[in-house]
Amino acid sequence: MTALFLTPAERKTHRAAAHHLLPVVAIGNEGLTGAVLKEADAALAAHGLIKLRVFSDDRGQREALFARLADELGAAPVQHIGKLLVLWRPPLPKERAERDDRMPGPKVVKVLKFSKSGNHRPQVKKVKVLGNQRIAAGGTLKRVRKTRLKSVKRSVPD
């Protein structure tokens, strides 16, 4: 694979996004091994933007390693600062099959609670309503009422 190229504006946004990241792959004294490539590829597939730490003191060797990583992984070199390398690869589109049997998920509902005194503003509270819950008149959450099965013995008249 060949390395991707970024515009300076794209590189700037990726550098800003990578600032708070911790290194997920460490490259030791043995350099770029198959295991390191595999881990870096898996991290790029999972996250898209990764930071790597190189334990080599030679700057030229780190630059060559950075270019080789970008070429072999099909990623864009974002930043090389000190012993940290930042790589970015666009995420692959995930195939999601729609399920027909899927039920609706939880909803976030705003509930107004009025004060007992008319002088205060009503409080707005966000509540997560799950599938088996309902909002009662006072704004509290309750389970949905289910119709209870009546006993066969009681339904038969004497």
Brief write-up:
The chain is built from four helices and eight strands, in the order H-E-H-E-H-E-E-E-E-E-E-H. The chain has 158 residues and is α+β, with helices and mostly antiparallel strands.
Structure in words:
The protein is an alpha+beta fold and 158 residues long. The chain has two domains: 8-88, YhbY-like (Translation Initiation Factor IF3); 107-142, no CATH class. It has helices spanning 8-18, 34-47, 59-73, 152-155; strands spanning 25-27, 49-54, 76-81, 84-88, 107-113, 123-129, 133-135, 141-143. A four-stranded mixed beta sheet has the order 1-2-4-3, with helices on both faces. A two-stranded antiparallel sheet has the order 5-6. Strand 3 and strand 4 (84-88) form a beta hairpin. The longest helix is centred in the middle third of the chain and has 15 residues, at 59-73.
Question: What does the secondary structure layout of this molecule look like, with pairings?
Answer:
Layout: H1 8-18, E1 25-27, H2 34-47, E2 49-54, H3 59-73, E3 76-81, E4 84-88, E5 107-113, E6 123-129, E7 133-135, E8 141-143, H4 152-155
Parallel strand pairs: 1-2
Antiparallel strand pairs: 2-4, 3-4, 5-6, 7-8
In whole angstroms, how far apart are the ends? 84 Å
Q: Order of SSEs, N→C? A: HEHEHEEEEEEH
* CATH class descriptor name of the largest domain: Alpha Beta
Number of helices: 4
Mean pLDDT: 88
How are the strands of the biggest sheet laid out side by side? 1-2-4-3
Number of domains: 2
Q: Mind summarizing the main beta sheet?
A: 4 strands, mixed
Task: Find the count of extended strands (DSSP E, 2+ residues).
Answer: 8
Q: Roughly how many Å is the radius of gyration?
A: 29 Å
Apparent shape:
elongated
Low-pLDDT windows of residues: none
Strand content: 25-35%
CATH architecture heading of the largest domain: 2-Layer Sandwich
Helix content, binned percent = 25-40%
Q: Which oligomerization state do the chains in this entry correspond to?
A: single chain
User: What is the CATH superfamily classification of the largest domain?
Assistant: YhbY-like
Structural class: alpha+beta
Task: Please name the CATH topology of the largest domain.
Answer: Translation Initiation Factor IF3
